[in-house]
Amino acid sequence: MPRKNCPSLYQAAASAAALAVGGALQLLGMPHAAAWCWIAGAGLVLAAVVLDTAAALWRRQFGLDLIALVSIVGALVLGEHLTAAVIALMFASGRALEAYAEQRAEQDMSALLGKAPRSANRYEKGAIVQVALDAVRPGDRLAVRPGETVPVDGTLVCAAMVDESSLTGESVPVACGAGAPVRSGTVNAGNAFDMLATSSASDSTFSGIVRLVREARASKAPAARLADRYALLFVPLALGMAGLAWLLSGDPHRALAVVVAATPCPLILAVPVAIVSAMSRCARRGVLVKHGGALEKMAQVQTLFFDKTGTLTSGQARLTAIATAPSIQPAEALRLAASLEQLSTHAIAQAVVAAALERGLALSLPQQVEEQPGAGLSGKVDGKAVRVGSYEAIAGRAPPPAWAADIVARVGDEGAAGVYTAADRSFYAALHMADEIRKDTPRALRLLRTLGVERIVMLTGDRRDVASAIAGSLGIDTVLPEQTPAAKLAAIAAARTDGVTMMVGDGINDAPALATADVGVAMGARGAAAAAESAQVVLLVDRLDHLAFAVRIARRTRAIALQSVIGGMALSILAMSVAACGYLPPVAGAVLQELIDVAVILNALRVLRLERARAGSTIRADEVAKLKGEHAHLLPVIEQLASLADRAETLPAAAIQAELASLNAALRSRLLPHEAHDDAVLYPQLAQLIGGEDPMASMSSTHREIYRLSRSVDRLAATISKGGATGASVRELRRTLYALDAILRLHFAQEEEIYHGLSF
């Protein structure tokens, strides 16, 4: 049944006017004029029903409008003009109410289209000129005034405050520094700023999202398939009961009353309203569901396929370990490497720079920089001749020194990236760069299992050992490594015979698999456009746990739709039975059926209130960023722990004493105050959000262990200062430092995961 807001509203208004005028004429003693008014009102709606029914039959669809057609025609033939007018009003008002409900539910998806920028402010010959959006090219310098929408993707020339709510749903503006990326569709929430465009308008993030939203709105959603299955039973039942009542009583008015009591059936209203409401709820959380059929399938997913890189993992290299020669500190080694890497556009080089900036290191401007493809960079940093590149480029064929052997082996075994650095012809540092598991991945997989997903499979082109290590840590059921796109298709096709499948991916090579699965989900925030185009669901925010939210909404929506359908059908059948026995006249039946329709629509609209976050039940994005910033500020202290433990046996006693004194001072002045503040201020706040009597008990126990190990470091520092670095004291020191390093890294990861989950 087509649902158009204005025609439905106009039909309802005209029917109401005809019914009212006819009623007034009847009271004035003009029954013939009243009858013609009622006929006119009913005829207007009847014409629309005839057109809709004919269109449905032309498409070979068995529509529920057929009952409305029979009831209005039957009332007019039997001379029940008032009944025909009442039925027409009820049917038209039901359509109008349904159209309003769908419009209300669709507002969240439509809001994006209204924010699409149409022009940009570009610098031309020293002046700012407003140009069409299509005229913007990568490299253009643009000005964004307060309140304006960022027109294309780019990088900031200066610091800015931006509102990313249209893309992420986060209502709090985010502060971004110079050089930070900024996505189109975000809004300037502070002072005017300049940016350098990195994409054209057609390739920008927001343009891609807008295209997807338009596609979702324009597509013919098979939202009523659930209703159609019940309609095949209900329509013959209604017409059969009407025919039987007429046959047994010999009164055609009873047949009319039965048909009226079934018009319009809740099936025609409840399912579309519930489905569109669910699509709206998902859109508010950054999950774009392109059509209702995908939402219905999501509620029945049994097997879930995941790509690895960029889906289960971040898809971006991060610094995970540093090994240095005894003569240099890890922070200084990283600073020198990052200073040189500033002039490289390679993704690994940018990850090294990001790691240094994250730790608050002051980078120097390199001189005489040369880049050798496949080997790395060379140049001068603070007067030192620094080289950064592969192991072969830095150390040649020589075996790695003892301090670097572990990282070199790990890089080879894990399929990670290694960045090796030399200064003044001396190899002095090895950086381990790895693609880490997303913070939200474990939570997302746990939630999906609780929602009924029976089997989780990793499909990846990576080596078996690398894929198995990640799958084992996440508890994934099956690992299919070294997969070609064709092999992925075959695996998904085989699983479809056992139930509904879902595939989640982000790359161009995932596009065929996304299209093959019953439900394809693309990581649209940073993924390839081909993946987003071929998928039925697109995650507009870079968070995998939002998929679990969408699946939960889909399952609860299906339950609510079934409640509405079954409840409405039961009430309608009861009313039809009463009408068949002669106790419910046609006019009263029409009014009663309208009340049933209103009830099922209101029940379907409950979907709009599903999973709404209560005030104060989540953490703002800026608070999450603050915690991560504090942890990043403490990373040099943690790295100092492992570095000293690695070198303790080779360092002279005086060097151990000096480094231990520095480390001990950092623990007392920086680390322990941070942990004390968390225990006294942060954890009580988190406990209120999580609920329960003492949800942070295990985290507080970790704090106590951190304090104990820190006291041990303090004691060992005093012992070594007095009695020297004996073999026993050095061994105990190494054990203590390694233990403190491990527990701090685990503790920080746990805190960030808790924060990440509560910022959902």
UniProtKB/TrEMBL annotation:
Statement: the UniProt record of this protein carries the keyword Cell membrane: yes
Pfam assignment, any one: Hydrolase
Residue stretches making up the P-type ATPase A domain: 116-213
Superkingdom in the source lineage: Bacteria
EC number annotated for this UniProt entry: 7.2.2.12
TM segment ranges: 12-29, 36-58, 64-91, 230-249, 255-276, 559-580
Compartments (UniProt record): Cell membrane; Membrane
Residues annotated as domain Hemerythrin-like: 624-757
Catalytic activity: Zn(2+)(in) + ATP + H2O = Zn(2+)(out) + ADP + phosphate + H(+)
Main location: membrane
InterPro entries given in the database record: ATPase_P-typ_cyto_dom_N, ATPase_P-typ_P_site, ATPase_P-typ_TM_dom_sf, ATPase_P-typ_transduc_dom_A_sf, ATPase_P-type_domA, Cation_Transport_ATPase_IB, HAD-like_sf, HAD_sf
Keyword Transmembrane recorded: yes
Alphabetical keyword list: ATP-binding, Cell membrane, Membrane, Metal-binding, Nucleotide-binding, Translocase, Transmembrane, Transmembrane helix
Family: Belongs to the cation transport ATPase (P-type) (TC 3.A.3) family. Type IB subfamily.
Protein name in the entry: P-type Zn(2+) transporter
